[in-house]
Every structure is written in C-alpha cells, then in structure tokens.
Design brief:
This protein is an alpha+beta fold and about 130 residues long. The chain has a single domain, classed as GIY-YIG endonuclease. It is about 25% helix and about 25% strand. It has 4 helices and 6 strands; from the N terminus they run βββββααβαα. β1 and β2 form a beta hairpin. The C terminus is likely disordered.
Length: about 130
C-alpha cells in the first residue's frame, strides 16, 4: 500500500533511559560520540523478542569501545551460552564524563547484570550530600 510506513522497531528502556533497538554484536552502527551501552542476549524460546541483560558500559567513544576486543567480551560469550550477542545504545549528548559514569553506575546497581561488578555508590552519595 502506498504512503504507509513500516512500524518502527521497538527500542529498549532501562532505568527510564531509552536505548536504541538492539542490533547484533559486533556492529558497525555504533553512534559517534559518548554514551552508555547494554549487551544483551535473546532469552525467549525460538529466538523470541525477550532480551536478557548481560552488561552495561559507558564510553566517550562508543564506536571504538564496543568491539570484540573489549576486556569483558569473553565473559559476555560465556554468560550468553554461545547465543548471538546484541547491543543497544543510549547516547548521552549533554552529559559530562562524570554524569555518564554516574548514570552507568545507577543502571548497574539497579539491574545487576551478571557481567558487571556492582559499584558501591555510598561514597558518591555521601560526597553529593556534603
């Protein structure tokens, strides 16, 4: 039918932050600039749409950081059970380095992905309240 648009693929949302639609990892479609990224794996039967979160990361340069040479890559592969990895991005234009790292920390503590170390924010919260 003429004039109809294909539906937009669903995006991912974590902690109130909207991420791009997950794409197979590795990808050449990483946004330019800084942001937060999520590594995911299909968790539904028959390749269903359900995604299981494995890792959150942040970088000033998503395109150079989100590669198979990442130091946690082998952890992601093990945690996925050999299934295809996916990646979703949340560009953080307007946030400085510390704000982006704080946002990553909050996501890790909220979701506790298996390939992230939990970050202790008690010192950060004390510093903010002083």
């Amino acid at each position: 039918m003429y004039g109809t648009l294909a539906p937009k693929p669903p995006s991912a949302s974590f902690g109130g932050r909207v991420f791009t639609t997950p794409v197979p990892f590795p990808t050449l479609a990483a946004p330019i600039g800084g942001g937060i990224y999520a590594i995911l794996v299909h968790d539904g039967m028959y390749g269903g749409p359900l995604q299981r979160l494995l890792y959150f990361g942040e970088s000033q340069s998503l395109s150079s950081r989100c590669t198979a040479s990442h130091e946690k890559y082998q952890d992601w592969v093990r945690a996925s059970g050999g299934k295809q990895l996916f990646i979703a991005f949340h560009p953080t234009m307007g946030l400085n380095d510390q704000q982006r790292k704080d946002a990553e920390c909050a996501l890790i503590n909220q979701y506790r992905p298996p390939c992230n170390d939990r970050v202790d924010t008690s010192g950060m919260l004390r510093a903010l309240s002083s």
